[in-house]
Design a protein that fits this description.
about 290 residues; alpha/beta; Arc Repressor Mutant, subunit A; D-Maltodextrin-Binding Protein, domain 2; 3 domains; two-stranded antiparallel ribbon; elongated
Amino acid sequence: MLDWDNVRIFLAVARSGQMLAAARKLGLDHATVSRRIATLEAGLGAKLIERRTNGCALTVRGESFLSSAERMETEILQAQVALSADVAISGDVRVGAPDGFGTFVLARHFGALMDEYPGLTVQLAPLPRAFSLAKREADIAVTIDRPAEGRLTVKKLTDYTLSLYVSRDYLDRHPGAGAAPQDHRVVCYVPDLVFSPSLDYLGEVGLADARRFECAGMIGQVEAVRAGAGVGVLHDYVARRFDDLVRIAPERRIVRAYWIVTHDDVRDFARVRLVHDHIVSLTQRQQRDFT
């Protein structure tokens, strides 16, 4: 008989690609994870994971078993949804979001929700990266691209705009920046670290050939522009918070969108539904700030 706990550990290793990373996520030590995987393999009579110097990889049989393990996980999650319908809201909900939206919109609005539901813990990950709901990296993800595949529930949150900004001090020293921003250094993303094509927008504002200071995170870009590093393409809802930032060339404006995404396996968890609806509600209340 399969031990679900061993299968759960297998899923964590398969999704992270590392024993150590899986151990940290599960709150176990490396030796326990390794031993549990060995027990699972012995019970199945098949090698599932190949240990390598730089991590782990699934064998052919491991790939095959992964599909079965994910179906087991789905069944267990659905059972939990059914059994927890009348249970008080408690537990962890992890929210992955772009660093700007996560920091300047979400971070300040979860405290009151957790005061109302003391058993709830929100884990906010405001990072310049994409999150895989299929790999359970998050329960809810805010994305800048609408997912096209997967067992996902997707809802548009809002459009948002980006414009060109410089610091007041920079504009005093370079009064021509507004008329010809392409002649100045541009603060932008690191090209090979851009996690979405939607962030490659310099061509849209005529700055593709400008000199660059490249920074992988949006918050870092904001601080660089405030310090006078050059011209930045910044989110209007963020830049408006800083009196030392000045918008230039207002005709060069970009429109993007945020989407909120949940995996179908967890969307009906009461705690996930609560946090999802909270994000939708607060975004609707702040609608005018985004454009």
